[in-house]
Amino acid sequence: MAVRLCDVASLLRSGSWSAEPWSGQVIAAMETQLSNGPNCTSNGPNSISNNCTSSAEPPDGGEDSKTNLIVNYLPQNMTQEELKSLFGSIGEIESCKLVRDKITGQSLGYGFVNYVEPKDAEKAINTLNGLRLQTKTIKVSYARPSSASIRDANLYVSGLPKTMTQKELEQLFSQYGRIITSRILLDQVTGVSRGVGFIRFDRRVEAEEAIKGQNGQKPPGATEPITVKFANNPSQKSSQALLSHLYQSPGRRYPGPLAQQAQRFRLDNLLNMAYGVKSRFSPVNIDGVTSLAGMNLPGHAGAGWCIFVYNLAPDADESVLWQMFGPFGAVTNVKVIRDFNTNKCKGFGFVTMTNYDEAAVAIASLNGYRLGDRVLQVSFKTNKTHKA
DNA sequence: TGCAATT
């Protein structure tokens, strides 16, 4: 067995293999995030202009108002446990809820995290807003107190001038009330506005006034009138979308799925040479049962693949691990190992990822990565319990 | 050169 994973890594790095541009993009995105902190840049597949509208400050009133957060744009496959694990890395959580479709049980891509301490809620916004997870960039903001008056306050706006920016859209609608979020949908290929957007107001009555005031009107300088109406309820849509999805070809959901899948297959071949493993994209497992040969491989830990991360700084925390590994795929858990007395990181940590191929790309890409003034060493976890 | 577990 001559081929090892580090050879895959060197292939990735050397550019002699075609996945280089992809992993390079992931690293570039990650570096932006690690060096610049949270941001509000665009959000994956569905494409969307920036959305930094709401909630730098907690809403008034209620006991929960300074501790309760809403988290938007979560990856579809993220579970409530993973949400809790991610936000639990900041501070003690009082409660945590991932919102699911009532019928299908599918995640609606958002949830709530209520901390015990207001300062942890603030810290979570500062450190986790803008975190990239898979193809998403999550948004973390204070939740507004739940009430009937804030429901159904989302508007769908079409016929917008292609030149209109999100800021201009907000300016047009801000006269009717407090805007919670806004967005303009962009063409996935050209990045140009599709002339369609959404405005969510704080209260339904504000949205109603905006319809009365703007539906059928021409924005300043525009030649055509715009249409303003209540947006479809997304929870109805998602179960429909899910059903139709089953009967349709995958379509173009985000940039380059075919290319990525092709890359995965090529990666598969390399990994197969290295470890004799086939990933979930491989056609090999005819009976759908994972080969027992995989059971003794490094890192394989029941559910998912455990990754050892060495040379973390004493002040490293879980959020840095989420930031580094999240973009590569499904991460179920991260852990920084600390000294019991000093509570400082002992220099290493662990990350559990669901899929072998994503874990392998993360390792190949992050091993040797410079974090601050340290060079990380990243590999599958081994069993060093009874050292010889 | 280091692979946890006060859940």
Automatic annotation (TrEMBL):
Give the record's keywords alphabetically. Answer: Repeat, RNA-binding
A molecular function (GO) held by this record is:
RNA binding
Outline the extent of the RRM domain: 67-145, 153-233, 305-383
Biased composition, class Polar residues, residue ranges: 37-56
User: Can you supply one Gene Ontology CC term for this chain's record?
Assistant: ribonucleoprotein complex
Signal peptide feature range: none
One Pfam family name from the record?
RRM_1
SMART domains (alphabetical): RRM
Q: Which PROSITE patterns match?
A: RRM
Q: Where do the record's region annotations for Disordered lie?
A: 37-64
Q: Which InterPro entries match?
A: ELAD_HU_SF, Hud_Sxl_RNA, Nucleotide-bd_a/b_plait_sf, RBD_domain_sf, RRM_dom
NCBIfam families tied to this protein: ELAV_HUD_SF
For this chain, the family text in UniProt reads: Belongs to the RRM elav family.
What's the protein here called?
Answer: ELAV-like protein
